[in-house]
Amino acid sequence: MFIHFGIKDFIDVVLVALLLYYLFRLVKISGMRPLFLGILVFMVIWILVSRIFNMVLLGSILDQFVSVGLFLLVILFQDEIRRFLMSLGSKKGWNFITKLFFPDKQKNDKSYLTPIVLACMNMSKTNTGALIAIQGDLHLGLYEQTGEIVNADISSRLIENIFFKNSPLHDGAMIVVGKKIKAAGCILPISQNPNIPTHLGLRHRAGLGISQETDARVIIVSEERGKISFASQGRLKMNISPEDLQRLLLED
């Protein structure tokens, strides 16, 4: 069976394995892992029935499901497919190559993060709710258009004024691009992950949602408890200190 198994077949298997692993990570972030595993189990059963044991009747029934499976997958995983295509079109892969061959040229100045952490610490003390999304490789232009374009230098006072309770922009999200506050009062997608604790409000769900859709790093300050949370890659870290926030933001 493996007599004609060559280097090309090995590369083919490795690429398929990497693709399945990447897709598994995407659906794990969105909380659809059981559905993804169910599809994999169905595919294994279909291969065993139709290709290994040659069971004609059951195989023909499963073949009908497989023939329309592509359309069902597009419907079920439309968010994951969009996120996968967006990541392919981002500069993340080029950044990896640049870091590999020119590591010294990838040292970015992250001093702009300090006033963000300081503002979050002050807002935490006064129970001022806040939602800040820091753009990564995937652009957030679609979400910037839902709010007011600010395009201002980052400062802790400006951030605190935007999220002040009587400010017209305090209910929305702030989007930070590079060293600029790009927009405020923005609307972010709400996470549909069923594992989110029920006591969390829309700020946390929106912060987690944008971290699932993109590679943005998100800071949430609770208005009820004054606690700071951090969302990245579909994961939410709750009740963190300003020091932990600084460390998480500095991590690549």
Automatic annotation (TrEMBL):
Any Pfam family hit: DAC
Domain of life of the source: Bacteria
InterPro entries tied to this protein: C-di-AMP_synthase, CdaA, CdaA_N, DisA, DNA_integrity_DisA_N_sf, DNA_integrity_scan_DisA_N
Ranges annotated as spanning the membrane: 6-24, 31-49, 55-77
Single GO molecular function: diadenylate cyclase activity
Any one GO BP annotation for this protein: cAMP biosynthetic process
Keywords: ATP-binding, Cell membrane, Membrane, Nucleotide-binding, Nucleotidyltransferase, Transferase, Transmembrane, Transmembrane helix
Reaction(s) the record says it catalyses: 2 ATP = 3',3'-c-di-AMP + 2 diphosphate
Function: Catalyzes the condensation of 2 ATP molecules into cyclic di-AMP (c-di-AMP), a second messenger used to regulate differing processes in different bacteria.
Assembly: Probably a homodimer.
Family (UniProt): Belongs to the adenylate cyclase family. DacA/CdaA subfamily.
PANTHER family, per the entry: DIADENYLATE CYCLASE
Protein name listed in UniProt: Diadenylate cyclase
Source organism per UniProt: Proteiniphilum saccharofermentans
Name of the encoding gene: dacA
